[in-house]
Write a sequence for this structure.
C-alpha cells in the first residue's frame, strides 16, 4: 500500500518531526504570501470532500497549487455520489484517472482506511474522517505550538469540549502523547468517556474546566459540534457557563499560554469573543500553518525525496 | 428401503453418555441399531474410522433470507452451507419479507424447505405483526404450521407490556420466547461495542447495558408469566451472570452463545472491516472470556451461529453504513473445537451437547439424540483435521465472515439427514457396499 496519511496514531514520531521541520521551510516570510514552488510540477491531486469544509479544503488547494501540482476539487454535492454511487465505485472511477494522491474528507469514521485497503495504487490523505482523526490539523497545531515553544515534551495541554465526537482531539492526543506532553481532556461527562484516558499515555480527564486550564501551557478549545450529536447528550443552553473559555480563565493559565481553536469558532458558545481576539489566541497562526503543513505532507507523499525517481 | 451403515466411528451421544467405537445403522430415516460389527445387506457404508459420530447438529438461530432477500441467501443455499457446517436442523428467524408472522408465511417457508433444503428447517415465528413490536402475531396458528419458537430477533420488542403479553400467550402454547436483548434506545446509532476500541476508532458504541437491561427485564417478565424465555446470543459477562442466577432460581430461562463471541473480542477487529460488524457486537476481551467460562460452567444451553448473510455490495461500504451480521454455519464447529475443546476448557461430549441435545431441549424438538428410534440425523466430524477456511468457496450466497483465511483444527466430515448423506468432505468416508 502506498504511504498515504490516514491518521496520527500509526505514525512514527520521527515521521511527524520530519513533516513539522519541513513545514517550517514552507512558512512564508513575515507579511508575505506563500512562495510558489515547482516541487510537484506534473503531479495531480484530487481533493474529494464529502463533507463541507472551508479552511481545510482551501488550505489543501493552496498548498497543492503553491507546490505546482495540478488539483481537482470535488464535493459530494454535484458529483456522482449524490446520484447514489457507492464510495468504492466513486474512488475506483477517480483512481482510474491516475491521480498521484487523493485528499479525502468523509463524514464516516474509517472511510479512508476502508478505501485504502481496496485501492492499493493511490495514496489517500485523510482530511478528516467522521469522529475519528484529522491528522493534518494535529500537525498544524503542533507546528503552531512549536513556533512559540521550544518543545512539545513536558508541555501541559488542555483540550476542552466535545472530545467524544472530535477528530481534532483524537489526532492531537496521539501526536502530543508521542512527544511526551501531558494532556488534560475536559468536557461534559457524556462527551468524555472514561476510555479516553487509555487511548494514549499521559492523558487524564476532568469535568472541571478550571482544573483543566490551571497551569496549562496550551489550551485547545473544540467547536461544539451540535450537528454530530444524534441527540442532546448535554444541556446545550448552559454549555458556555460551564465549559466555555472566559476572560477570567486567562489568569489561571501560565502567563505565556496559547489559546487555540481549530475553527470555525462559535463566539459565545465555547469561547468568548474577548479570549478569541486576545493576545493569547493563535487561531489565525493555526490557519496560516495549515498551508505550510499541508505543503509538507503533500510533498512527502506525492513527490518528496522521490520526486526525481518518479516517472 | 434405503439403508446407511456408519462404520467404526467414535459414537458420542450426550443424552445417554455413550462414548465408544461403534457402528450406526440407519434405515427408513431412523436409527435402527447401534453396536459392534453391524452388517446390513444392501446398506450404503460410510467409513467413519477415526471420526466422531454425533447426533445431528441443530442451529437454533439463523437467517435464511427467503422470502424477500434471495440475493443474500435462499433456503436452499443456506441449507447447503448448514450441511457443510455439520448442521442437520436449522431454525430461520422471522425477519424475512414478508415477516414470518402468519401461518401462511410459515407454511410457505416449510414448503420451500421441503422442496429445496437439504437439512431440516424449523422456522421461528415473529412475536409481533411485522415485528413492529405492537400487536401480537398469530402465534398459535404459526405453531400449528410448524414454528418452534417466537422471536422478533433484530427488532426486539421494546414495549415491556407487549413482551409480557407475548410471554403469557406463548406459555399456553408451550413455545419458548427468544429475545435478541437490546434496548434500542441505548444502542441507537452504535456500530460496535462501546469501549476503548470504539473510542479509539471514533465509532459510536453499543454499551453492554443495552443488552443487560433487556436480559434482566425479560427474566423478570418470564418469571411473572411462568414463560419459557431464551436469551439469544448472550454476549456480556453480566448477561450470563443474570442467566445463571435465573437458572439457580429454577426459572425456565435458557441462553445461547455464538462462536464469534467465544473467539473474538473488539480488539481483534480489523479496523472498519464490516466482516466484524454484527449485533450484539464483539465485546471486550473480558466478555469473551466470560462466554467461554459460562460454557464451561454449564450456564449455556446451546451454541447458535446467528448465520446472517449479506451480499458483498452491502458489506463493501463505510463501516457505519454496513448492515450487521456475519455468516457462520461452516465455521461454527471448528471455532467451538478451537476455543473450547483444544484449549482444554470444555470436554468434547459437552460441546456436542451444546450443538444437539441443548438446543433440542430449549425448542422441545425430539432430536439431538443418537439412539435407536431417533431420527437418522448424524453429524460426522474430525476433531483434529487441519484446514483453512476459504470463504470464497462457501456454500452460502454471501461472503461476510471474519474467519476467512483462518487455520482451524477440527471440521465436519459428513452430514446425514434422515439416513441420507447430504454433504461430505471431498474424499471422505464412502466405501461403497
Amino acid at each position: 500500500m502506498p504511504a498515504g496519511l490516514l491518521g496520527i496514531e500509526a505514525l512514527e514520531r520521527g515521521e511527524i518531526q520530519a513533516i513539522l521541520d519541513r513545514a517550517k521551510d514552507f512558512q512564508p516570510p513575515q507579511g508575505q504570501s506563500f512562495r510558489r514552488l515547482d516541487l510537484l510540477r506534473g503531479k495531480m491531486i484530487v481533493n474529494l470532500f464529502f463533507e463541507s469544509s472551508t479552511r481545510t479544503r482551501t488550505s489543501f488547494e493552496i498548498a497543492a497549487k503553491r507546490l505546482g501540482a495540478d488539483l481537482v476539487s470535488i464535493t459530494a454535492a454535484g458529483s456522482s455520489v449524490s446520484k447514489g454511487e457507492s464510495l468504492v465505485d466513486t474512488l475506483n472511477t477517480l483512481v482510474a484517472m491516475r491521480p498521484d494522491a487523493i485528499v479525502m474528507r468523509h463524514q464516516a469514521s474509517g472511510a479512508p482506511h476502508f478505501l485504502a485497503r481496496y485501492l492499493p495504487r493511490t495514496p489517500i490523505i485523510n482530511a478528516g474522517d467522521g469522529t475519528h482523526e484529522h491528522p493534518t490539523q494535529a500537525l498544524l497545531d503542533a507546528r503552531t505550538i512549536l513556533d512559540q515553544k521550544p518543545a512539545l515534551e513536558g508541555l501541559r495541554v488542555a483540550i476542552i469540549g466535545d472530545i467524544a465526537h472530535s477528530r481534532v482531539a483524537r489526532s492531537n492526543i496521539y501526536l502530543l502523547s508521542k512527544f511526551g506532553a501531558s494532556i488534560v481532556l475536559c468536557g461534559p461527562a457524556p462527551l468524555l468517556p472514561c476510555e479516553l484516558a487509555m487511548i494514549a499515555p499521559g492523558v487524564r480527564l476532568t469535568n472541571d474546566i478550571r482544573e483543566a486550564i490551571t497551569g496549562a501551557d496550551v489550551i485547545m478549545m473544540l467547536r461544539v459540534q451540535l450537528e454530530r450529536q444524534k441527540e442532546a447528550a448535554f444541556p446545550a443552553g448552559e454549555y458556555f457557563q460551564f465549559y466555555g473559555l472566559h476572560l477570567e480563565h486567562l489568569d489561571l493559565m501560565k502567563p505565556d499560554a496559547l489559546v487555540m481553536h481549530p475553527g470555525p469558532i462559535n463566539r459565545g458558545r465555547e469561547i468568548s469573543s474577548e479570549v478569541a481576539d486576545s493576545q493569547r489566541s493563535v487561531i489565525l497562526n493555526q490557519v496560516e500553518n495549515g498551508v505550510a503543513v499541508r505543503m509538507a505532507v503533500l510533498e512527502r507523499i506525492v513527490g518528496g525525496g522521490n520526486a526525481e525517481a518518479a516517472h | 428401503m434405503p439403508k446407511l451403515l456408519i462404520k467404526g466411528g467414535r459414537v458420542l451421544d450426550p443424552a445417554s453418555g455413550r462414548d465408544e467405537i461403534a457402528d450406526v445403522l440407519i434405515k427408513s430415516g431412523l436409527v435402527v441399531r447401534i453396536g459392534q460389527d453391524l452388517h446390513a445387506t444392501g446398506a450404503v457404508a460410510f467409513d467413519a474410522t477415526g471420526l466422531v459420530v454425533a447426533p445431528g447438529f441443530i442451529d437454533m438461530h439463523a437467517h435464511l433470507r427467503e422470502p424477500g432477500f434471495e440475493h443474500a441467501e435462499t433456503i436452499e443455499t443456506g441449507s447447503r452451507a448448514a450441511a457443510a457446517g455439520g448442521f442437520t436442523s436449522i431454525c430461520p428467524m422471522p425477519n424475512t419479507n414478508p415477516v414470518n408472522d402468519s401461518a401462511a408465511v410459515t407454511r410457505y417457508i416449510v414448503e420451500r424447505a421441503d422442496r429445496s433444503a437439504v437439512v431440516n428447517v424449523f422456522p421461528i415465528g415473529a412475536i409481533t405483526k411485522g415485528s413492529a413490536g405492537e400487536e401480537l402475531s398469530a402465534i398459535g396458528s404459526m405453531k400449528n404450521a410448524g414454528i418452534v419458537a417466537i422471536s422478533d430477533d433484530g427488532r426486539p420488542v421494546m414495549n415491556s407490556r407487549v413482551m409480557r403479553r407475548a410471554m403469557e400467550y406463548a406459555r399456553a402454547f408451550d413455545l419458548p420466547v427468544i429475545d435478541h436483548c437490546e434496548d434500542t434506545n441505548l444502542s441507537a446509532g452504535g456500530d460496535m461495542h462501546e469501549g476503548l476500541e470504539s473510542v479509539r476508532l471514533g465509532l459510536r458504541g453499543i454499551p453492554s447495558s443495552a443488552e443487560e437491561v433487556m436480559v434482566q427485564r425479560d427474566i423478570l417478565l418470564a418469571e411473572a408469566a411462568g414463560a419459557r424465555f431464551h436469551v439469544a446470543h448472550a454476549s456480556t459477562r453480566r448477561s450470563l451472570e443474570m442467566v445463571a442466577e435465573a437458572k439457580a432460581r429454577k426459572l425456565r430461562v435458557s441462553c445461547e452463545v455464538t462462536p464469534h463471541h467465544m473467539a473474538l473480542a473488539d480488539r481483534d477487529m480489523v479496523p472498519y472491516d464490516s466482516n466484524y460488524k454484527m449485533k450484539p457486537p464483539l465485546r471486550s476481551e473480558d466478555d469473551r472470556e466470560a462466554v467461554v467460562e459460562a460454557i464451561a460452567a454449564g450456564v449455556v444451553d446451546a451454541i447458535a451461529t446467528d448465520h446472517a448473510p449479506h451480499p458483498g455490495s452491502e458489506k463493501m461500504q463505510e463501516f457505519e453504513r454496513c448492515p450487521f451480521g456475519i455468516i457462520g454455519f461452516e465455521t461454527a464447529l471448528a471455532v467451538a473445537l478451537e476455543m473450547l475443546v483444544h484449549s482444554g476448557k470444555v470436554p468434547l461430549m459437552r460441546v456436542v451437547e451444546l450443538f444437539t441435545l441443548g438446543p433440542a431441549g430449549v425448542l422441545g424438538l425430539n432430536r439431538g439424540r443418537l439412539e435407536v428410534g431417533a431420527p437418522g440425523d448424524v453429524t460426522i466430524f474430525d476433531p483434529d483435521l487441519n484446514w483453512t477456511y476459504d470463504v470464497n468457496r462457501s456454500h452460502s450466497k454471501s461472503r461476510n465472515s471474519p474467519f476467512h483465511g483462518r487455520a482451524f483444527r477440527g471440521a465436519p466430515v459428513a452430514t446425514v439427514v434422515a439416513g441420507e448423506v447430504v454433504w461430505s468432505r471431498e474424499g471422505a468416508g464412502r466405501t461403497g457396499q
Observations:
- Chain B has two domains: 3-53+376-396+408-432, 56-363.
- DSSP finds 14 helices and 18 strands in chain B.
- Residues 56-363 of chain B form a domain with the TIM Barrel fold (CATH 3.20.20.140).
- Chain B touches chain A at residues 188-189, 194-196, 198-205, 271-273, 313, 316-321 (CB under 8 Å).
